[in-house]
């Protein structure tokens, strides 16, 4: 019998979700009797399915395998160091730096597209990540384009963008996308931390860390361990860790 990827089996445990999935994916047949992944709300699922249908994706057909290592695809050393510090004791992390196209679109669309492409190229379970910095006064901009703003106008320019506004608040948003392999629809894990934009303080060795202040300290001034216990990345990885725990339990059920 063909096996769908684990996520599809997990999704199909909700009655309404089953109907939704079967409507979109007539070939979904394998239904798990009980799913540990109960925190996926129907709205999330609808969004996931509508992303699928928009990109014309198909139900993935792949044999499940134990997830004891994962490839984190990034060229950013700062991200890699933090992911290893936060996640390294839960799963073995390999790193690859692929030049993946970052499409325009919502945060979730950008992250999913990047992850799908990485899974296709590497043919293995992959994790990708996209970071946004959203200024409230600018209705969320620069958002996913922060990398290009950083490159062209730097810390001072980012401060000047807000010069005419009283509201200096900003949100750091980290969006991880995980795919079990080629054809497996990415699952999204997002974390957000609110702070404000200030003149640079602290070492400049990771992106916009010196201008993002959280409770009186910039990310750059903070002890690394402290940043890794409150950051947007930490919050997203906490959700991914929960997913890994349920994934392992599901694996035990499948193999016993
Ligand atoms: O290969 P990828 O993972 O895409 O790495 P990247 O450096 O291109 O990263 P993004 O596309 O996500 O762009 C996000 C920008 O924000 C920066 N950044 C990401 N996380 C950060 C953090 O926790 N603190 C400060 N800057 C961060 C990063 O250096 C980029 O300039
Ligand atoms: Mg990038």
From TrEMBL:
Pfam families: Ham1p_like (PF01725). It is an enzyme of class 3 (hydrolase). The keyword Hydrolase applies. InterPro entries: ITPase, ITPase-like_fam, RdgB/HAM1. One of its GO terms (cellular component) is cytoplasm. Keywords: Cytoplasm, Hydrolase, Magnesium, Manganese, Metal-binding, Nucleotide metabolism, Nucleotide-binding, Nucleus. It is found in: Cytoplasm; Nucleus. Binds 1 divalent metal cation per subunit; can use either Mg(2+) or Mn(2+). Pyrophosphatase that hydrolyzes non-canonical purine nucleotides such as inosine triphosphate (ITP), deoxyinosine triphosphate (dITP) or xanthosine 5'-triphosphate (XTP) to their respective monophosphate derivatives. The enzyme does not distinguish between the deoxy- and ribose forms. Probably excludes non-canonical purines from RNA and DNA precursor pools, thus preventing their incorporation into RNA and DNA and avoiding chromosomal lesions. Pyrophosphatase that hydrolyzes the non-canonical purine nucleotides inosine triphosphate (ITP), deoxyinosine triphosphate (dITP) as well as 2'-deoxy-N-6-hydroxylaminopurine triphosphate (dHAPTP) and xanthosine 5'-triphosphate (XTP) to their respective monophosphate derivatives. The enzyme does not distinguish between the deoxy- and ribose forms. Probably excludes non-canonical purines from RNA and DNA precursor pools, thus preventing their incorporation into RNA and DNA and avoiding chromosomal lesions. Belongs to the HAM1 NTPase family. Homodimer. This is Inosine triphosphate pyrophosphatase. It comes from Orbilia brochopaga. The lineage of its organism: Eukaryota, Fungi, Dikarya, Ascomycota, Pezizomycotina. The gene is HAM1.
